[in-house]
Design a protein that fits this description.
The chain is α/β, with parallel strands linked by helices and about 325 residues long. It is built from eleven helices and twelve strands. It has helices spanning about 10-20, 55-60, 80-100, 140-160, 180-190, 205-220, 235-245, 260-275, 285-290, 300-305, 310-325; strands at about 1-5, 25-30, 45-50, 65-70, 105-110, 165-170, 170, 195, 200-205, 225-230, 230-235, 255. Helix 3 (about 80-100) runs parallel beside helix 4 and helix 7 (about 235-245) crosses helix 11.
């Protein structure tokens, strides 16, 4: 079987490609010309150059593939030009899915996110059925992923698209080369540059467990169904304390009220617009999201797919070690 993996130069996609190769599948990856391909180094796979905005390149990449793992996404919590994130995550996903149906792909796993799911108002771990609407989506990233998931769901229902949807929580671990927003936080904490924190929470999962969940969804998932691929629910204070212990540092003790960071977020976003050098470390949307604890349950994936996740401590340890060895941090 030949499987096309999008996003394989990135974090989750590269982990999926590696697991597919380990089980003996032929792997083709979609990569933009000139993209950073460090995560593909040494892997016995085929590279198809193309872009989600180029239908001809997508059709070439899909040709002869029986399987598609669509893990590519524009994962930025702040963008100076919001239309870019919708073009990639919504328009690009719909275009790829339509072409996959036309070219005879037999099985698809679409990588969504827990960002598209509802949050339990009482703080209990949410699941795939927790109520949610588009109005609950904070920021362009979450909104774009919500809309993209609806596009996939519509094609499943109306066109019989053979797609399974998975919703990873907060992956951490090796090969986060960009790094992701969560990876940036780990790097800063490991370097001792996060002396304070806000009261929020995340569901932390090892990236390799997320990749394994994708293959389980491919093998056992039902078309149109969603499966949360998560790990352990931790407050941000607990996460930072664990990272500090791994690095031999003192954990942060100061908890900052969310409102106190609003002026800083305004200033950081204004500076980012002026210098054009990337996403600010503190954003207004990020603060809004942090007001709720992003706690989730993977019980459905465990029951229906046989999904398992290792303890968050192992995921954080692997992330810290990889960032240290890759030169992102010291100590």
């Amino acid at each position: 079987m030949t499987a096309l993996v999008t996003g394989a130069t990135g974090f989750v996609g590269s982990a999926i490609a590696r697991l597919l190769l380990e089980r003996g599948e032929s792997v083709r990856v979609l990569a933009r010309p000139g993209s950073d391909r460090r995560n593909l180094k040494g892997l016995d796979l085929e590279v198809a150059e193309g872009d989600l905005g180029d239908p001809a390149s997508l059709e070439r990449a899909l040709r002869g593939c029986r399987a598609l793992f669509h893990a590519a996404a524009d994962y930025r919590l702040w963008v100076p030009k919001p239309e870019e994130i919708y073009q990639a995550n919504v328009e690009g996903t719909r275009r790829l899915m339509e072409l996959a149906g036309e070219t005879g792909v037999e099985r698809i796993v679409y990588t969504s996110s827990v960002a598209t799911l509802g949050i339990d108002p009482g703080g209990a771990p949410a699941n795939e059925d927790t109520p949610v609407t588009q109005d609950d989506m904070i920021g362009h990233y979450k909104r774009s992923k919500f809309l993209a998931e609806r596009e996939v769901d519509t094609l499943v229902r109306e066109a019989g698209l053979p797609a399974v949807i998975v919703n990873p929580s907060t992956p951490v671990g090796p090969r986060d080369i960009k790094p992701t927003p969560t990876g940036r936080m780990i790097v800063e904490a490991a370097a001792g540059r996060m002396p304070a924190y806000v009261d929020t929470g995340l569901n932390v999962v090892h990236v390799d467990d997320v990749a394994a969940g994708h293959l389980l969804a491919f093998d056992k998932g039902a078309a149109g169904e969603r499966y949360i691929l998560g790990g352990e629910n931790l407050t941000l204070g607990e996460i930072l304390t664990r990272i500090a212990a791994l690095c031999g540092r003192r954990p942060p003790r100061v908890k900052i009220p969310h409102n106190a960071l609003v002026p800083l977020a305004h200033a950081a976003e204004a500076w980012a617009r002026l210098n054009g050098k990337g996403e600010p470390f503190v954003t207004l949307d990020g603060l809004k999201m942090a007001r709720k604890r992003m706690f989730f349950s993977s019980a459905k994936a465990a029951e229906k797919l046989g999904y398992k996740a290792r303890p968050a401590q192992e995921a954080l340890a692997d992330a810290v070690q990889w960032f240290r060895e890759a030169g992102y941090t010291k100590g």
